[in-house]
């Protein structure tokens, strides 16, 4: 039962966002904090990510500190936690925990939740992990640790190329680098040794072409184990899992193969004494009926987030209970779930497809070339999911959610690719490989030929073949109701059908309505309808029964920001979460539409209802027609969607935002900005920023009465409340600023300003939207800009993202326009 010795738990955050780290860990931290609170456990959270929503939870003691051994130890000395729970901080937390527990005083007085110290060491050191796995007769690929470049080359010559290079105890999230020859190996070793805290690397045998499958499993202190879900990469090993198209549940394993992997995952959980959640990644060779363990992650990660969204199983809440000693049979879940659901293995009656999102186009539009070829280094910056009753429907929706235009997904886009280029791209895939595979099928390549060239299972080519044939049939029979019915069932959008028929979008939509072709919504819940549950997560399909009924009178529909993008990914997720929570605090029922599996906004605690859907006008209007919201709140960069909704007389409120992320200052140039709050009538100065390349500073001490009175206050000709700024290379700012010089304040800078001022400006804007201003709000507005701040001087520092390692750009990327992640540095309290 509940470990009553534990009264306070330290949570270590994940830090700045980066390749392989979006908001999934912060989402888990937020839910774990809430779950611990329900169990009477106090929490302390340390993080330096301004986009962390968990840092603003009312149920934790939050410290905005750098994620270093020294600062974490200072928090421990102040707070005296009874335990540390590293599973919501990923590799960063595991690295810090190993260092912290080398302090004898910490080891004596602080427990580790979920894992033992020797397991933490194994997770940080792949060589130790492989030794343990071999000891329990679990197959691992040939692998050795090297302490020098010379030793690494000796191992590579023994193993044979290709090899995979990984750092031991990496400072940050590290990727597996593939080396096909000596030159590749030399480059990979330089990076890996630089990333390793122990100056060691692991050299693995290359296993390109094998199938990649991941399992999420749970275990409690009584050794009760359960399977939560599994995912399958369509692409073979050799392409980073984050860049692969991923399907859940697994489609191509036999029951015997699946049961072997399930049993293996359970053995690993027991052998490593993991309590709580673990993601076990396998490489499978169906030709020889063998498998290898390639990754063990006893923490919440992107696969965990995907499985949680796919199954509806409350993984973070259950994990929080079992690590405190509560057996799975005794875990209490929110009332929306069936009794004992925590110990019942989830069942799915739908298909989920995760589709990677790349930033190649945005970077190349800035005049910078990148390497688009996919390999073991992650190149995607985000992802979307589509949910449907079939692979075809889920894939179509995932691609639409990724903001591919419908015309781009049509096979005709690839007609101009020469045959030699087609073959090369089949062997060496790029980000457009789905289009390429369909084009190869159209040109007459057989399924067997393509499966051999790409190492993708034949099953998926038959599905792509079906999509291709369906699009062809629809295009050849404009207005055919039977084909329209099929097209809608398999996920083709009204926009794509309109293009295939050379008709207007509204005409296709009207034809569907006239023939009763309207979407129905199905619940995503872990029992697949076996038990009565009142969950709130839905997806659309075209079947008979609709499981979603209108929420209430006058709900607010919030449109999420979708997949993470360079420049504003995590800040958009944070902003949406703040909006939803402020509506909840004001007793306004809310609905969120989003399609990012890692996004905090899909957390059930924030909104009354969640729809996982593409964010195109047809999908949004389907929800609008069902829910009849009083207001739809949309990010300001979604101009096409905003205009389309207004054309259809929908009441839209806009969260002001630039369509494209603004560029930062050039090297050795200072930019200064005045940041304002606009209430629809009056412009008020909040802060001033000093921006150099890679760093932005806000200093409360410069806000003197004289300066405040001499900052420009142009008259704006619109009435939308929001946060705006004017930027100049001169300070003081020129007085002749016009309204046209103003731009919306970037979401990331607003999040930073929220953290350092101690005032959540987004909440204030939402209260303006809903006419719920408080007396405190009015006092703040009256005193601006001379209101007290939480921290006097702070810096927003761009993460040191290794873009060269991932994307090989031919020029340096602007860390403002192409921001991957940032951290806060407090200069003066």
List the helices and strands and how they pair.
Blueprint: E1 8-12, H1 24-38, E2 42-47, E3 61-64, H2 69-79, E4 83-85, H3 90-100, H4 104-109, E5 111-112, H5 117-124, H6 126-135, E6 143-146, H7 149-159, E7 163-167, E8 177-179, H8 182-195, E9 201-205, E10 211-219, E11 225-233, E12 246-248, H9 255-271, E13 276-285, E14 290-297, H10 302-311, H11 315-322, E15 351-357, H12 360-365, E16 382-388, H13 391-401, H14 406-409, H15 419-427, H16 433-442, H17 447-454, H18 458-476, H19 481-489, H20 494-501, H21 505-514, E17 520-523, E18 537-541, E19 556-559, H22 569-585, E20 590-594, E21 609-612, H23 617-627, E22 631-635, H24 639-647, E23 652-655, E24 671-678, E25 683-692, E26 695-699, H25 705-710, E27 722-728, E28 743-744, H26 747-757, H27 761-769, H28 775-783, E29 793-798, H29 803-807, E30 822-828
Parallel strand pairs: 1-2, 1-4, 2-3, 4-5, 18-21, 19-20, 19-22, 20-21, 22-23
Antiparallel strand pairs: 6-9, 7-8, 7-9, 10-11, 10-13, 11-12, 12-15, 13-14, 15-16, 17-18, 24-25, 24-27, 25-26, 26-29, 27-28, 29-30
Helix pairs in contact: 1-11, 3-5, 5-6, 16-18, 18-19, 20-21, 22-27
Catalytic activity: hydrogencarbonate + NH4(+) + 2 ATP = carbamoyl phosphate + 2 ADP + phosphate + 2 H(+)
InterPro entries: ATP-grasp, ATP_grasp_subdomain_1, CarbamoylP_synth_lsu_oligo_sf, CPAse_ATP-bd, CPSase_dom, CPSase_lsu_oligo, CPSase_preATP-grasp, PreATP-grasp_dom_sf
GO molecular function: ATP binding; carbamoyl-phosphate synthase (ammonia) activity; carbamoyl-phosphate synthase (glutamine-hydrolyzing) activity; metal ion binding
